[in-house]
Every structure is written in C-alpha cells, then in structure tokens.
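This protein record is not my work; I was only asked to verify it. Would you go through it and say whether the fold makes sense for this chain? Here is the record exactly as it was handed to me.
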Amino acid sequence: ATLSAAFIPTFSRVMLRGGEDAAWRLASSALNIIATATLLLAALAFVLAPTLVPLLAPGLGEATGQQEELRALAVHLTRLMLISPLFFGASGMVTGILNARHHFLAPALAPVCYNLGIIVGAVFLADGYGVDGLAWVNGCSSRCCWSSSQSAIACASTGENTPDGATAFTASVV
C-alpha cells in the first residue's frame, strides 16, 4: 500500500509531463523491479524456510510432542504459500496504476475475488487435499486477483495509445 501510494502521484506526474508512453515505461520498470525483488526474496525464504519457521514459531508442537512433525508441516506450507507475495506485490503496483488513471472498480473488487477464492477453495478442496489444498487456494486466489487487475489495466488504457501502452506493459510483465 505504501509503495502504491508513492507510485500514484509519480505515475500521474510522468503521464502529464512526459506522455502516456513515458508513464507506461515507468510502470513497466517499477513493476519489473518489484517482481524481481519479490521473486528473489521469496526464493531466499523458500531456501531458508527450515531456519525461519523455528525463529518465527518457537516451540511449535512442543505441548503436544509433535514438534518435528508440525515444524516440517509449517515449512512445507510456508513454501507453498510463497507464491502469494509475488502476485500481491505486482497487484499492488497494478492497483496504483489503475487508481492513477481514475479506475477504481477493479482494485475494489480484487480483495473480494481473493476472499471468495479462499472460501470456495476451502469448501471444495479442504476435504480432498486438506491443509495443502488451502495453501494452494491462497496462491491461486492471489493469481486470480493479479489476472483481473492486469485485465483491468489493459481496459483502462483508452484512446489511441491503447495498443502501445497496454500491450507494452502487459508484455513486459508476462
């Protein structure tokens, strides 16, 4: 949210002063930096999960005598859910772009999409896949929000610059 709040005025200023192409280049560069940094941090967290989980949840399972089993499960679930930050980071940037272009519906609906995805996934996947199903739903729901935001970005770009701006932006982040 903080990055998006800082990005909106910058994107708007570049659009006014440098034109739509310059604004889309800025958006593409910022999104690529955010995506790369988040990917690197998620990869690092994936590798370090066996060390991070005991630091963040000391004593997990000690009361029940299942410390090793629960720690292994926590590491596994942490690794499954590390895909979500990638999509949340990108979605935050896309939300900033849409807000800067005065399109507020898609950013308002994205959290609804995410929560509905989790609810539907919990109802339909929990029985068959257990807690792993819920972790996958988290990642898939965040992907759903990213897809809807990215589609909204392409639709929000109006005028004769639509193919250049929206297509160049979409191609650079795919």
About this structure: DSSP finds six helices and no strands in the chain.
